């Protein structure tokens, strides 16, 4: 007869906890073992997909600096990564956890797009300021820079206003 404690959940600890978290977080972030190895390489560790597989299978031990780097590569706080088990695929919180990663990724994409937009705005403002300075200098020299007498402006090549731009209906 088995004891009532036989089916009790035993919390993961130590290296088992870290390998569990690594595997679950990697899959939740939709990273392959190769992707995670590449992230580790970018952080200065020579990792290969086979090393990630061995770590996940428990056949390769981890050094502390590798654990910290793995947490960074998976975008989680190292303290959480080493002390708290994340939801596994069979647990109800797993789906929510995966959705959280998608939200985090979308936020990162939005921030990158926002940064690009801010840079483009700054370049536009600088170009307009330069244009105004040149127009003022030319006007001070007696050059007529009025809008009706100025040179004809042409759209930037391949811009939406470019009459030579091939559209989707033109085979492009």
TrEMBL record:
Bias (Basic and acidic residues) ranges: 163-172
Signal peptide span: none
A Pfam family it matches: HTH_3
Domain HTH cro/C1-type: start-end pairs: 22-81
Disordered: annotated span: 142-172
Descriptive protein name: Helix-turn-helix transcriptional regulator
Protein's organism: Actinacidiphila polyblastidii
């Amino acid at each position: 007869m088995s004891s009532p404690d036989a089916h009790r959940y035993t919390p993961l600890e130590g290296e088992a906890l870290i390998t569990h978290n690594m595997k679950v977080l990697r899959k939740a972030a939709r990273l392959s073992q190769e992707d995670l190895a590449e992230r580790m390489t970018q952080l200065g560790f020579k990792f290969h997909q086979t090393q990630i597989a061995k770590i996940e299978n428990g056949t390769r031990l981890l050094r502390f600096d590798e654990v910290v780097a793995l947490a960074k590569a998976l975008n989680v706080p190292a303290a959480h990564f080493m002390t708290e088990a994340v939801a596994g695929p069979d647990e109800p919180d797993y789906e929510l956890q995966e959705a959280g990663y998608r939200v985090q990724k979308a936020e990162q994409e939005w921030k990158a797009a926002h940064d690009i937009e801010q840079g483009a705005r700054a370049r536009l403002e600088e170009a307009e300021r330069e244009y105004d300075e040149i127009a003022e200098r030319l006007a001070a020299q007696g050059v007529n820079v009025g809008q009706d007498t100025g040179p004809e402006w042409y759209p930037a090549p391949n811009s939406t206003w470019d009459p030579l731009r091939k559209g989707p209906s033109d085979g492009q």
